[in-house]
Design brief:
Helix content: 25-40%
Strand content: 15-25%
Number of strands: 11
Order of helices and strands: EEHHEEHEHEHEHEHHEEEH
Distance between the termini: 24 Å
Shape: globular
Oligomer: single chain
């Protein structure tokens, strides 16, 4: 990746700043952070190349845009990277022939959606920074990116910890019965990977408790008006159970967008 001009200025919150990766050094720092979080902390299983490089990298990184949060107290460059999100637009995915999510889900309904679409993924934050301010910065960056590229629909895979669906049966059941996407934008897990989400009877679990047990990122998508696809997928490599998430940007909660739109529509137009 060669250095490029940013599409929007850095967004600051105290020592923290949010911007897009612009060169190979930024991307390398992001991949190193992802390795520390996914492999060293969350127990993902590394192949020989990943273990040797201490980097979480795949072929999608080269075509994606990468949001990065930098703690300027640690340094203004790659040494300060403490959070990231990977963004893949339709044009970028076309270079590889598919979106990342297509390895787990049939996303044909999403791909047929009129307008610009974007896949979200590989979100992670260093353990010492997992608070409201870091996630707000990441969502502010997503908002800026959405406005700049006129994204109409966002989607991706979101993870619940562990590979035993029955251990998270309440959460999966809750998601299916309360947040299932409309058929016209509903991804479905590929047949050979499909895991039924209705793990318990509707009256056999506490919806409020199930919602409370969901990972913060999934709860964030739901607060943004997000939906889930049909079927979960077990990902043994990353020690997770995944669900597909779809968010129409015209339903996104105004607190994430209108403030940024007033301040930044002109600079990034």
């Amino acid at each position: 990746m060669t250095a490029q001009e940013p599409i929007f200025p850095e967004i600051r919150a105290g020592n923290l700043g949010l911007r897009l990766a612009v060169d190979e050094a930024d991307t390398d720092a992001i991949q190193a952070l992802r390795y520390r979080v996914f492999y060293e902390e969350m127990g993902a299983k590394a192949d020989a190349s990943t273990a040797a490089s201490h980097r979480d990298a795949d072929r999608y990184d080269a075509v994606a845009d990468h949001l990065m949060v930098v703690d300027h107290a640690l340094g203004d460059g790659p040494e300060g990277v403490i959070g990231t999100y990977r963004l893949i637009r339709r044009e970028a995915a076309a270079k590889l022939g598919q979106f990342y999510s297509a390895d787990e889900y049939d996303v044909a309904t999403v791909e047929r959606f009129p307008g610009n679409i974007m896949e979200l993924g590989r979100s992670c934050v260093a353990s010492a920074y997992r608070g409201r301010s870091t996630m707000q910065l990441l969502w502010s960056g997503i908002a800026a990116y959405v406005f700049h590229h006129k994204i109409a629909l966002m989607f991706g895979c979101a993870s619940l910890p562990g590979t035993e669906p029955d251990a998270i049966g309440d959460e999966l059941t809750y998601l299916y019965y309360n947040h299932l996407a409309p058929p016209e934008i509903r991804p479905r897990a590929l047949p050979h990977r499909y895991i039924e989400m209705r793990r318990v009877d509707q009256d056999a679990y506490d919806p409020r408790r199930a919602l409370a047990k969901l990972p913060p990122l999934i709860k964030g998508y739901l607060r943004l008006g997000g939906f889930v696809g049909d079927g979960a997928v077990v990902d043994p490599q990353f020690n997770t159970t995944d669900v597909a998430v779809v968010v129409k940007t015209d339903l996104v909660t105004t607190r994430y967008y209108r403030h940024y739109e007033r301040q930044s529509r002109d600079p990034i137009a």
